[in-house]
Amino acid sequence: MQSNPSASGHPQTTMQNSFPNRLIAIWLFVCCAMIFAMVVLGGVTRLTHSGLSMVEWKPVTGLLPPLGEEEWRDVFGKYQESPEYQKINAGMDLEKFKGIFWLEYVHRLWGRAIGAVFLLPFIFFLAKGWVGRTLSFHFVGIFILGGLQGVLGWFMVKSGLVDRPDVSQYRLAAHLVAAFFLYGYIFWIALKLLIPTPDALPSPTAATLRRLAKLIVALTFFTVLSGAFVAGLDAGMAYNTFPLMEGHLVPEAMFDMSPWGMNFFENIATVQFDHRVLAITTLITILLLWLRGRSRAVSGRGAQALHALSIMALIQVGLGVSTLLLFVPVTLAVIHQAGALVLFTLALWTAYELRSPRAQK
């Protein structure tokens, strides 16, 4: 049985947009949608302080939840030994515990579901001969990264089970950006299978547009990273004005910590300021790309991507400012986190549509 030339990474042929490629692309987009839901669910568990309710990690045997009162009491008893219960939730009864437990349980179960939805179709496509060697290598790498993401998630949770009833902002940031990287990796491959040849760009400014598009992907990614530190330090609960921070554009406490470099990771004022600057820089760069694209008559899917990216950037900044001014309401904060992944998706799509002809091979 012959493998699909396009899927195997060979030069494009008349089969480049064949049924196997489209089916594989749809499967990958489904995986992306599941990761998107996972990111949103992770935000809900963090904001509702549910993430530390499960103090054990059983990746193989932990599929089923507690099934009877005895099992529930056993799980609750282990939670009562944790710093979160002893320092924050002392006196919580079993029924309230179940409320936070179920969110974290579904979060972990959904991670297992993503692994199954990825692995089983991959085996099927491999058996059909639709996946060549190069694409198989990518898919094996994705599966390994997904498994490591589960390990990283538990590594993050463990940091809140020792002394301080809160996870490390470093581990939280690593866990979130790893999810974004995995999502972007899958999404890009799906685009290559579904849209092998992006629309041609006007040649005089093509290189400038491509550089700006790549810069926007990087800026969006690092803005998400800075947002993870804001979340990990609960920095959104401070400096709840915009654009000033306690009456200053640059907060006075920005470099209070020593050594100097620690301010960027552990100083609430610095972390929030960095996130603001990166968000506004990303927005300005996106609007600049949109203006240049319009002036150079970018058309087709490229124009659609530019319009969608610009609109979403404005919405996302609005969501961020609103979340800050309203002292981080759970619903708005979750929408803001979801908006970050939507913006990242559109940034990747824009960069893909504006890529050079040589990258289309």
Provide an overview of this structure:
This protein folds into two domains: 1-196, no CATH class; 199-361, no CATH class. Helix content is 67%, strand content 0%. The chain has 361 residues and is mostly helical.
Keywords:
mainly alpha; 67% helix; 361 residues; disordered N terminus
* Helix content class: 55-70%
Using the CA coordinates, give the radius of gyration: 23 Å
Largest sheet: none
Low-confidence segments: 1-16
- Label the structural class: mainly alpha
Ends apart, CA distance between termini? 24 Å
Shape: flat
Amount of beta strand = under 5%
The run of helices and strands is HHHHHHHHHHH
Total discrete domains: 2
Number of helices: 11
Tell me how many strands there are. Answer: 0
- Summed over residues and divided by their number, the pLDDT gives a mean of 91
